[in-house]
């Protein structure tokens, strides 16, 4: 029935999704196409790396929060130690996250990293050390985001489990258990 | 996901369900963090997913005593809580506060962090006395811009082989920063990897200025003078942080490579024509 199929959710944040994909795609496209049109390596380098850096910032600060409700950063505490902080929305909001949004988020992250790896292999085969440099920088940025968000997601799940366990352990009426079985 | 409108199985359990619901909404998943002086507040992005049903806790949420939850509830009102341990996680768990903060604010915040880090590292100021505390909010944007700018300037100054000059300059500076950091770490120094990268990148700022001046005026004597001054400035900027990080007996071992790298960059600036 067509009616029921229309009800499936659309992207909840189309503009954010667009930006999420925009800079990644622009960096990759520029890098690939510039080899055909632009002779100047410096321009290729600066523009590609700048677009990649912008993409890194957008993913980390904007689309990560809006599309999947995760955030990660690094702080240095008073003792001078580096601490990685992860943050996630509470369970309510996480469950309400649009599935399409998060699917797009994760898959474009992985695909971009994969694309850079392939491009890097091409550059290696052609022995173009300077292009390997470009690809290396872009790959580092992509992988950093992947690692950060994956750790953040694991941390969020772990905290959720801890929270659920603690509340379960302290409430032992049966009606509470039914309230929590679907958490 | 549980639908919170479930009818309780037993009349008396409604209060328990209410208690649990208030727990869910009141304690966002925040990590426990040590108390520390607040760093510049981090921007938070409005979550466009409607979270209208989660009530804002009016005060630092009172956790029901029977539940020993170890998360620290973040204060929705910025100034209210005395246990406000982190600025970073506030607002994220209590959406109404940060829903109004646009992306531009994040940009401004990051830019101001770059500026403050720059002022901290390169210009004389009282915070230099405590190098460990400085650059606590490290960021790599500043170093990125400075390295690229230096590479671009050198590349523009060069009349031949511009691409190679840029690539070499970028690679040398980036690899140099990493190697210098490893050097400090291997000497048994106490420095955070990214903090040191950030520091070495910011200390390139004087050399950036020197390279810019050298690009504009092509007089050899002027170049030597300018590069000498900016080199000394860069070294002066890097000195307290690097020397504080290592054992005093190994200070020279840690500092010498830094000077060497800046001197070689200086030669690169002078020699480019």
UniProtKB/TrEMBL annotation, chain A:
<keyword id="KW-1133">Transmembrane helix</keyword>
<dbReference type="GO" id="GO:0016192">
    <property type="term" value="P:vesicle-mediated transport"/>
</dbReference>
<keyword id="KW-0812">Transmembrane</keyword>
<comment type="similarity">
    <text>Belongs to the TVP23 family.</text>
</comment>
<feature type="transmembrane region" description="Helical">
    <location>
        <begin position="103"/>
        <end position="125"/>
    </location>
</feature>
<dbReference type="GO" id="GO:0009306">
    <property type="term" value="P:protein secretion"/>
</dbReference>
<feature type="transmembrane region" description="Helical">
    <location>
        <begin position="28"/>
        <end position="58"/>
    </location>
</feature>
<keyword id="KW-0472">Membrane</keyword>
<dbReference type="InterPro" id="IPR008564">
    <property type="entry name" value="TVP23-like"/>
</dbReference>
<feature type="transmembrane region" description="Helical">
    <location>
        <begin position="131"/>
        <end position="150"/>
    </location>
</feature>
<keyword id="KW-0333">Golgi apparatus</keyword>
<comment type="function">
    <text>Golgi membrane protein involved in vesicular trafficking.</text>
</comment>
<dbReference type="Pfam" id="PF05832">
    <property type="entry name" value="DUF846"/>
</dbReference>
<dbReference type="GO" id="GO:0000139">
    <property type="term" value="C:Golgi membrane"/>
</dbReference>
<protein>
    <recommendedName>
        <fullName>Golgi apparatus membrane protein TVP23</fullName>
    </recommendedName>
</protein>
Automatic annotation (TrEMBL), chain B:
<dbReference type="GO" id="GO:0006888">
    <property type="term" value="P:endoplasmic reticulum to Golgi vesicle-mediated transport"/>
</dbReference>
<keyword id="KW-1133">Transmembrane helix</keyword>
<feature type="domain" description="Yip1">
    <location>
        <begin position="124"/>
        <end position="267"/>
    </location>
</feature>
<keyword id="KW-0472">Membrane</keyword>
<dbReference type="InterPro" id="IPR045231">
    <property type="entry name" value="Yip1/4-like"/>
</dbReference>
<feature type="transmembrane region" description="Helical">
    <location>
        <begin position="165"/>
        <end position="186"/>
    </location>
</feature>
<feature type="compositionally biased region" description="Low complexity">
    <location>
        <begin position="44"/>
        <end position="54"/>
    </location>
</feature>
<keyword id="KW-0812">Transmembrane</keyword>
<feature type="transmembrane region" description="Helical">
    <location>
        <begin position="140"/>
        <end position="158"/>
    </location>
</feature>
<feature type="region of interest" description="Disordered">
    <location>
        <begin position="31"/>
        <end position="63"/>
    </location>
</feature>
<dbReference type="InterPro" id="IPR006977">
    <property type="entry name" value="Yip1_dom"/>
</dbReference>
<protein>
    <recommendedName>
        <fullName>Protein YIP</fullName>
    </recommendedName>
</protein>
<dbReference type="Pfam" id="PF04893">
    <property type="entry name" value="Yip1"/>
</dbReference>
<feature type="transmembrane region" description="Helical">
    <location>
        <begin position="253"/>
        <end position="272"/>
    </location>
</feature>
<dbReference type="GO" id="GO:0005802">
    <property type="term" value="C:trans-Golgi network"/>
</dbReference>
<feature type="transmembrane region" description="Helical">
    <location>
        <begin position="220"/>
        <end position="241"/>
    </location>
</feature>
<comment type="similarity">
    <text>Belongs to the YIP1 family.</text>
</comment>
<dbReference type="GO" id="GO:0000139">
    <property type="term" value="C:Golgi membrane"/>
</dbReference>
<feature type="transmembrane region" description="Helical">
    <location>
        <begin position="192"/>
        <end position="213"/>
    </location>
</feature>
């Amino acid at each position: 029935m067509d009616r029921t199929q229309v009800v499936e959710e659309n992207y909840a944040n189309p503009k954010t999704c667009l930006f999420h994909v925009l800079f990644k795609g622009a960096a990759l496209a520029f890098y690939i196409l510039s080899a055909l049109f632009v002779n100047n390596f410096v321009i290729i380098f600066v523009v590609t790396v700048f677009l990649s850096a912008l993409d890194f910032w957008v993913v980390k600060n904007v689309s990560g929060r809006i599309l999947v409700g995760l955030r990660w950063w690094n702080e240095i505490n008073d003792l001078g130690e580096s601490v990685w902080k992860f943050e996630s929305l509470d369970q309510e909001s996480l469950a309400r996250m649009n599935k399409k949004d998060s699917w797009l988020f994760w898959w474009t992250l992985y695909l971009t990293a994969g694309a850079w790896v392939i491009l890097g292999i091409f550059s290696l085969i052609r022995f173009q050390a300077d292009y390997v440099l470009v690809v290396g920088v872009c790959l580092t940025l992509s992988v950093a985001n992947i690692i950060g968000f994956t750790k953040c997601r694991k941390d969020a799940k772990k905290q959720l489990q801890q929270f659920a366990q603690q509340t379960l352990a302290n409430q032992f009426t049966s009606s509470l258990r039914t309230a929590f079985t679907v958490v | 996901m549980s639908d919170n409108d479930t009818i309780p199985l037993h009349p008396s359990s409604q209060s328990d369900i209410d208690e649990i619901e208030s727990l869910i909404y009141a304690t966002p998943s925040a990590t426990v963090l040590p108390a520390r002086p607040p760093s510049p507040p981090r921007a938070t992005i409005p979550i466009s997913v409607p979270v209208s049903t989660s009530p804002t806790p009016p005060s630092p949420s009172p956790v029901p005593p029977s539940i020993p939850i170890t998360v620290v509830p973040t204060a929705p009102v910025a100034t209210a809580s005395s246990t406000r341990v982190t600025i970073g996680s506030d607002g994220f768990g209590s959406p109404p506060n940060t829903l109004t903060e646009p992306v531009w604010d994040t940009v401004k915040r990051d830019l101001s962090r770059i500026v403050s880090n720059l002022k901290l590292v390169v210009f004389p100021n009282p915070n230099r006395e405590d190098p460990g505390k400085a650059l606590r909010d490290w960021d790599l944007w500043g170093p990125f811009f400075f390295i690229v700018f230096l590479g671009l300037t050198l590349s523009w100054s060069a009349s031949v082989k511009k691409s190679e000059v840029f690539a070499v300059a970028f690679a040398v500076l980036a690899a140099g920063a990493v190697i210098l950091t490893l050097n400090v770490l291997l000497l048994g120094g106490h420095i955070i990897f990214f903090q040191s990268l950030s520091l070495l990148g910011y200390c390139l700022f004087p050399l950036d200025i020197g390279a810019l001046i050298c690009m504009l005026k092509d007089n050899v004597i002027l170049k030597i003078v300018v590069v000498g001054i900016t080199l000394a400035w860069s070294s002066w900027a890097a000195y307290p942080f690097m020397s504080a990080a290592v054992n005093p007996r190994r200070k020279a071992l840690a500092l010498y490579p830094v000077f060497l790298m800046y001197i070689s960059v200086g030669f690169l600036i002078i020699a480019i024509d």
